[in-house]
Amino acid sequence: MNYRSEVHAEGPVYGTGHTAHHILGTHHTISPVLALRWLSGQALHIANRLDPDPAHSPWLPPAARQATATGPDCPTELRTWAEDRHRQRVARERIKAGHPLFVVVPDADCTYTLLACRHLPPGQTMHQCEATTPVPPLGLLFAILAGQGRALGNDLAHAPTRAHCELGHGHDGEHADHVWDWDHQPTHALWARWNNGDTPRYESLPWCETADGPQNDACTLYRDHPHPHAWALHDPGTEALLRKDHTAGGTGECQGE
Ligand SMILES: [Zn+2]
Ligand SMILES: [Zn+2]
Question: Which end of the chain has less neighbouring CB within 10 Å, N or C?
């Protein structure tokens, strides 16, 4: 699997002076959309346990709905993060580009951390194709509208402006880059396809999903792509970014397993 999400909780153990660290849950998936969907579900689950949402708790009398805590409003922060489409889109682009995502939300006596990252298996063998091409915004917008019927301005602000081929060096046929995740059809994604010197065309393709990589990694290319599968490809640019991110203060939790 190629994207990993985790939820951590850390807080003092009463009367001991120690801090306990718990992993509340982990999830692996081939899609950045599904990785964030799981993380949002976990954020709402924690928020509802800490503070049942008055809007969804008809049995609470009005007096019980007054805020009594003076500390940071952790449940509200978690709900806001989980339900903000714009922040979700930014987060998706971030983990797709290979940067780990950390959302840290302190509660009165416990700190919750939501984490998502792309998982790069060790021992990769082949260089990725280096072809790139500009992605004209209007062409991509038409392809998105044709697929999902609508597009919000905020979404498009984070659409890629340049495609980088994700196939193996020296592959046959057109170059290909995954440019858009469908909300309505997570089994497929939108790909830019192009020949050198041409403007890209767009095609909705099912995921490859072949899961024969190290640690059963699933391929994140489209079905019937030229070989090899994604787990056997090596992108020096992304790996350098990930290393930089970790040395700049990341926790290192998302290094290859
Ligand atoms: Zn290529
Ligand atoms: Zn594949």
Answer: C
How far apart (Å, rounded) are the C-alpha atoms in residues 36 and 94? Answer: 11
d(CA 22, CA 112): 10
What does the alpha-carbon distance between residue 181 and residue 247 come to, in Å, rounded to a whole number?
30
Ligand 1 center from residue 135 Cα (angstroms): 15
236 preceded by cis ω (within 30°)?
Answer: no
CB 238 within 8 A of CB 98: yes
- Which residue's entry shows tokens 């991509």? 140
CA distance 19 to 109: 11
**Per-domain boundaries in the chain:** 3-119, 126-235
Question: Residue 237: phi, psi to the nearest 5?
Answer: -65, -45
Question: 54: CA distance to ligand 2 center in Å?
Answer: 46
Find out whether 35 and 27 touch, Cβ atoms under 8 Å. yes
Closest ligand relative to 168 C-alpha: 1
Ligand nearest to the CA of 129: 1
Question: Low-confidence residues of the chain, pLDDT below 50?
Answer: 1, 60-70, 124, 241-257
| Ligand 1 centroid, distance to 230 Cα (angstroms) | 13
> Whose structure tokens read 């970790």?
246
Gap from CA of 131 to ligand 1 centroid (Å):
5
pLDDT in tens, 196-217: 999 999 999 999 988 876 667 7
Q: What is the pTM of this model?
A: 0.50
